[in-house]
Amino acid sequence: MSSCVPRRISRHAAALVFGLGMLSSWAPVRTAQPVFLSDDPLGREPESQDASNVQPWEINLAFDVTYNSLVTARQEPTGSRAGNVNTLDEVPDSSWFTNRIGARPLSAAALVNGPDISPAPDPASWTILREKSSGAAAGFTARDARGATWFISFDAPSNPDGATGAIVVATKLFWALGYNQVENHVSSLRREHLRIDPKASVKRPSGRRTPMTNDDLQTVLSRATPGPDGTYRITAGRLLPGKILGGFRYEGTRPDDPNDIVEHQHRRELRALRVFGAWTNLTDMKSGNTLDTLETTDGRSIVRHYLQDVGSTFGIGANGPHEPSEGWEFVFQSGPALRRLFSLGLALSPWQTAHYEDVPAIGPFEGEAFDPEAWKPRAVVRAFTEMRADDAFWAARRVTAFSDASIRAAVSAGRYTDPRASDHLANVLIRRRDRIGRAYLPAINPIVGPRFEWPGGLSFSNAAVEFGGASAPRRYTARWHAFDNTTRVSRELGVTTGTATRLDAPAVVPDVPGGFVRVDVSAEHDEHPSWGRPVEIYFRRDASAWTLVGLTRLP
Amino acid sequence: MMFRSSRGGAAMGIALMVAALSATSGYAQAPAEPAGTRAGAIVEQQAAKAQRLTPYQPGKLEAWVQKIDEHLSATEVKWHPFYGTAYQGAGPTLGAGYVFHTGDYDSLDVRASMSINQSKRAEAEYRWPRVLARRGVFRVLGGWREGVDQNFFGIGTAETSAQDRTAFDFRQAYGSARLDVRPARGMLLFGGGVEYLRFEQRREAGSSFEQRYTSATLPGVGATVNYVHTRATAAIDSRPATGYAKRGGYYGVTAHRYDDAGSPFSFRRVDYDVVQHLPVLRDAWVLSLRGRVQTTYASADQAVPFFMLPWLGNARTLRGFSSMRFRDRNSLLLSAEWRVLVSLFADAALFYDAGKVTGRRADLNLAGLKSNYGIGFRLHTPATTPLRIDFARGNEGFVVVLGSSAAF
Fold this sequence. Notes:
The complex is a heterodimer.
Chain A: H1 7-23, H2 61-70, H3 108-113, E1 126-131, E2 139-143, E3 149-154, H4 162-177, E4 184-190, E5 194-196, E6 201-203, E7 209-211, H5 214-221, E8 231-238, E9 243-246, H6 268-271, H7 273-280, E10 290-297, E11 300-307, E12 316-317, E13 320-321, H8 334-342, H9 350-353, H10 382-385, H11 389-399, H12 404-412, H13 419-440, E14 447-452, E15 457-462, H14 463-467, E16 475-483, E17 490-498, E18 502-504, E19 516-524, E20 535-541, E21 546-552
Parallel strand pairs in A: 1-5
Antiparallel strand pairs in A: 1-2, 2-3, 3-8, 4-8, 6-7, 9-10, 10-11, 12-13, 14-15, 15-18, 16-17, 16-19, 19-20, 20-21
Helix pairs in contact in A: 4-12, 7-11, 7-13, 11-13, 12-13
Chain B: H1 7-22, H2 38-50, H3 60-73, E1 79-81, E2 93-101, E3 107-115, E4 120-130, H4 131-134, E5 136-152, E6 166-181, E7 188-202, H5 208-212, E8 224-237, E9 248-259, E10 267-280, E11 285-297, E12 311-312, E13 326-327, E14 330-343, E15 346-358, E16 370-379, E17 387-394, E18 397-403
Antiparallel strand pairs in B: 1-2, 2-3, 3-4, 4-5, 5-6, 6-7, 7-8, 8-9, 9-10, 10-11, 11-14, 12-13, 14-15, 15-16, 16-17, 17-18
């Protein structure tokens, strides 16, 4: 396969990258390059180059699944740190990601609105423009009464409200988490309000493309079930602006996009999708469910990256409920399959004994047996195998930033007919959120939100303790240093300890404008020895106060 | 970098990545932004990449997989494999077909196959798959087949043994029209059709069959029969697909009438079929049950020729016995499979089949059943079972079954 670096080369490259990455971490290495630059921490990743020459591509589903199942599944993680984090260990805004929940206040109204920038479709009339060209659900492309173009999809007859509710709720959640989302609305249509555009056509089994007929329309509608009043419940997804380029891959970079310089498997927001996917049971993580578009602003084009289809979520897929094993096993996973084979099925897998409530609108989705660390998408995703404890911690902070109320607000956007469905979905999401918090927040030193005042000391929070995922540690220890930003040399100033999340500073700190202080904060906890590895925190003395400029949390 | 157009591209990507990580955070330097800024470092890397852009080129494997996928998923199928045999039990078979589309959905499929025992089949089928407002499928089929070495062990269950095997050859010409309708596009299924069937037994002087049987001892020996075969089916079919199912069932009755003008071989046959798939413990297992009764009726001056008798024994009936091991005027077949869903695309199964053939309908009971048990492995899609391997053991030995469809 000429497009892929052989595994040996890939491993060597990974080792090289990893090694240099370690050398370039915050250790006091003598170099002329300052550690912290004037615009640190970076808030937005620039996209400086015109990308108008990017060509559309189509990622073949069969190859994608085969490659990920057979090749990616055998690749060992490089262990390297995410390549697009800023000096605060956060992900800057970019064409991939926008910091929302956890980074700024997000009202329930804003969450429910999500990516919507326009009114919901006007269902007074629908003109079908095209047959559906991808995806398994019944649907088509249509223009509403206001002239806006929408991608229409229906619920599977076995799961009323299921697919339409799932895609809208998931869209709100993933938008709040920071991803570019397609604007989706729950809407309706009636057969008598449908007309077929004369230019609409259908590709026939003969290979010919001929005008769409009422019979074709009836074929689509026969795969859905109208309500008692004859109205079909639908999801309407807005046509994205810009030129459609095809999906993105969860590894490598796009070779014709000049702004795409961090390999996707090392983008933290893509690694973190493993946690967000586990939370929502977004199992269908194939590249075909992503979309790149070329958007032009002020004469310069950039590629924007969307999680285009997050509808195979909770316990629902396009054609009905998830397979019971979804979220628990890869589609091709030899271990459990062989265990079942040789035990003739008597060696039960967890998904066979988990209790699922019978809520057809939600499908098999539960939070009691859920183990976030064991969760699996349908196929191996390279970015997921690269996820480290610091990536998972970052992701868990965002998941746990959802309050019960905000989860219920997002669920309300699904407009489930049966209130039991809304309650069940919200309750399961809350339970799964809690499981994620308990799994990932205590797994690494959870010091967050440090603030330094002089005279005074260092105050901070413990994300795991605050969330209720761990008890307070026996003791916190702060090792204070004066830090030379140019030479990278640290000079120890003293050590302070305490049991509270506020630690005194030593008697002397370089309290002059432009001075830097480095504080290594660790904690002692019998159940969480990983907390003993300090979080390195850097403050810069600005004109009037100490400003946080760096935070390194390593697994 | 895994998806580069060349190794040079990969090297460039690695170099960029190294540069990115060599900075103190994930990013390094650049000029467009103010010098010495983080954003400037990133801009510099992007500008460097802009000088070396390459279009994406799929690798050989990707291109190859894509070609196969396009062929398999193409809506317009032309050449296709054809594994239909001249008769069930002819052994491994290879063949091909070519589909001509004469309308948006209507098609003519011309196909032929040859089995390992030299049996041959050639036929053409015209299909109208969307008649009666997409409620029905109408087929017209015409063809010819030559069967070689078809098993015959005699009449009855207990009265015959595996050592009684003889074999005969035949030729068959057939033409039929058939309509299957789901009036509500749901579970209810009706079907009907008419067929012309010419069956010619090929005589081979001195063969064990010729030595053993005469037209006086076995109805139909040496006969050439021209049937007008009419059939009608009524069924409830709740299976999601006929080729593979984990739930749902089939409950149907099919009545056949074989009229043979001029020779004494007219008869009627009724098939009663019951299939039910029962998922157990969230699809950990599936219990599949099947029952089938075939009964024939002939007036006093007519007989059912031996080659048209209901039979048992092959990959889809009594799997632990030779093909067409048992023949008589009536048959009873019971099967159970305990399927283990190994993965989304593979099943294993423990199975048990039991059945018998009888001369009298009154003897269709559970006494004297021949049975077999076994274990099987299947690769399947959500709707088809392209590969099935069953290892069956009956009281006449061990049989390995290789199939390209579900057992039932």
